[in-house]
Specification:
The structure holds 2 protein chains of 2 kinds.
Chain A (H helix, E strand, L loop, with lengths): L4 E10 L2 E11 L4 E5 L6 H8 L5 E7 L2 E2 L4 H6 L2 E4 L11 H8 L5 H14 L1 H5 L10 H14 L4 E5 L7 H16 L3 E5 L3 H7 L2 E6 L2 E7 H6 L1 H8 L8
Parallel strand pairs in A: 3-8, 3-9, 6-7, 7-8
Antiparallel strand pairs in A: 1-2, 1-4, 4-5, 9-10
Helix pairs in contact in A: 3-6, 4-6
Chain B lengths: L4 H22 L2 H4 L2 H27 L6 H15 L5 H23 L4 H26 L5 E2 L6 H24 L1 H11 L1 H6 L4 H23 L5 E2 L1 H4 L2 H14 L5 H20 L4 H15 L5 H8 L4
Antiparallel strand pairs in B: 1-2
The chains are: A alpha/beta, B mainly alpha.
Chain lengths: 240, 312
């Protein structure tokens, strides 16, 4: 049984400013769920609230049990986040970044995870001694995903992984995300590339001004006139 | 920059063996050296232990603590108050524990501050402890200072300080290779990021800060017997804290060997300047600090690290 996430009436914000209003979300175990929406809709805030970086109100159940508030406790439950803008330790090597990702797992397990991640991202294996800050955007994003995988997550949350990447790199990265899902990890993907995200996800949510305005099977949303008009442009072709 | 922890782990038994062997070799010095040379060696060891323990926490996290004098002075007062009722070795242990306990206490209160704020508040806390002890001594015991009688022999003090130094270096080696060292490096890189990877930043910081304060506390207790008269102004001397920071930064607080080498260099230099230029020596030290911070922010060790990794 893969890990599922259930969010009920989640509210969060920054200081006095409330960004999220009663958001309900269901991420079935083993599936890939995507959240799309315009800039400033609160997508990143939602992920930050779930992973405990900012305070939240409401109910968050992970594998049927309430999720703790502290980020380190949340990570140890098996939730990993790849934050927007990658957030690497620029002054550390690729290997050191990966090892920090495996902070919570035991030493032998960390070595085993490291081998798996380096197999998944051969490019990182080549550059393991390089400082993370000196790599290209795509390589850094791969490192960010690899680092999150080091902690043996049951649920992986990705915040706009394709941001600022070359199209070829986006395809490569999203293929890896799909592979991670196929290996049994539940994935929650926030994306600005709506067509690509909907094409690979099972279910999808559309977030606008801090509230869910549309939800359903990704395929049917992809066919929805309303969504296509707002996000894909009227002439958008379906990608498969 | 430090190497990966996996490769670091491999060097640990060797580094520990080297530390113990060096300690054993240095243990014969009391039979070889004159009293003056032995006190110089003592001063080198003391600053080596202070700089290594300071770097243990402040090196990876990039915190700048000026509280070393507070831990040192508290340790010295443990000896001043306890030496009549306790054996010397026990006062040293107690001094270390008091230093660690005090660091844990202030760590919980102020470790969320960063940069200049943390430096200023640790300096302020040192002053606060100084004046609190002065006040307690004056009102409760009606005394301004304390005379220490039956101090142990110089050789015993030397071996004690040597023991603390070996322990400090061994602890630093183990911390660097441990999960705690891992967490500290992550916190130094970016605390929020480290937290999202599962690091309990608050606990790691308080633990490491407290651990690193054991050594100045123990050193204060061990060194107190060298002065026959103890008063707050002399044992809470901010110069000890500044000198520690200076040595660690000049040596390279990211490394282990840097602070050790630079403590020997600085202790000898300080002694030389004090003898040759009794009035201007602090001035010369100050200028040296300014020049080094401006032109070699990574410390002397960065020269060698850069050479070892030209591609980085």
């Amino acid at each position: 049984m893969s890990a599922s996430l259930l969010v009920r009436k989640l509210c969060a914000g920054y200081g006095p400013m409330r960004v999220l209003h009663d958001v309900d979300l269901e991420v079935p175990g083993g599936e890939l769920t995507t959240i799309v929406g315009p800039n400033g809709a609160g997508k990143s805030t939602l992920l930050r609230a779930i992973s405990g970086i900012i305070p939240r109100a409401g109910e968050v159940l992970f594998e049927g049990a309430p999720l703790p508030d502290r980020p380190s406790a949340i990570v140890s439950r098996g939730l990993a986040q790849v934050p927007e803008g990658r957030q690497l330790f620029a002054q550390m090597t690729v290997l050191e970044n990966l090892e920090l990702g495996g902070y919570l797992v035991s030493r032998p397990e960390r070595a085993e995870r490291l081998t798996r991640v380096l197999n998944l991202f051969p490019r990182l294996a080549e550059r393991r001694r390089q400082l993370a800050g000196t790599m290209s955007g795509g390589e850094q994003q791969m490192l960010a995903v690899g680092r999150a995988l080091m902690g043996k997550p049951k649920l992986l949350m990705l915040d706009e992984p394709s941001l600022g990447l070359a199209p070829k790199m986006v395809d490569e990265l999203l293929a890896i995300v799909r592979r991670i899902r196929d290996e049994g990890v539940t994935v929650l993907l926030v994306e600005q590339n709506v067509a690509k995200a909907l094409a690979m996800a099972q279910s999808a949510y559309v977030l606008e001004r801090g509230a869910v305005v549309m939800k359903g099977a990704a395929r049917s949303l992809l066919g929805s006139e309303e969504l296509r008009a707002s996000y894909l442009g009227t002439d958008a072709r379906l990608e498969h | 920059m430090s190497r990966s922890t996996l490769t670091r782990m491999r060097g640990v038994p060797r580094a520990l063996t080297l530390t113990v062997v060096a300690g054993a070799l240095l243990a014969v010095l009391p039979w070889l050296l004159s009293d003056f040379m032995l006190s110089l060696a003592l001063s080198c060891l003391m600053f080596a232990a202070l700089a290594v323990s300071w770097s243990m926490f402040c090196g990876p996290t990039h915190y700048l603590s000026l509280a070393t004098s507070a831990f040192f002075g508290l340790g010295a007062y443990v000896t001043a108050w306890g030496l009549e009722s306790m054996p010397y070795g026990l006062t040293v242990l107690a001094g270390g524990l008091v230093g660690a306990a005090f660091a844990a206490l202030i760590g919980v209160a102020v470790l969320h501050l960063r940069g200049a704020y943390f430096a200023v508040i640790t300096f302020g806390l040192t002053e606060l402890v100084l004046h609190s002890i002065t006040y307690v001594e004056k009102t409760m015991f009606e005394t301004a200072g304390r005379i220490i009688s039956d101090a142990p022999e110089n050789a015993v003090i030397y071996w004690t300080v040597l023991g603390i130094t070996v322990l400090a270096v061994a602890t630093a080696i183990l911390v660097r290779a441990s999960r705690l060292g891992f967490a500290l490096a992550g916190i130094g890189g970016d605390e929020e990021r480290a937290q999202t990877l599962g690091v309990n930043a608050r606990r790691a910081k308080v633990l490491a800060f407290s651990l690193s304060a054991f050594f100045p506390g123990a050193l204060g207790a061990a060194m107190a017997v060298r002065w026959t008269y103890i008063e707050p102004m002399s044992v809470f001397n901010p110069f000890i804290g500044f000198q520690t920071v200076l040595i660690a930064m000049v040596g390279g607080a990211q490394t282990l060997l840097g602070p050790i080498v630079s403590s020997v260099f600085f202790s000898l230099l300080t002694e030389f300047l004090r003898l040759r230029f009794p009035y201007a020596f602090l001035l010369v030290l100050g200028i040296l600090l300014v020049v080094l911070v401006l032109y070699l922010p990574g410390g002397l060790a960065s020269l060698f690290v850069r050479r070892a990794r030209p591609h980085a």
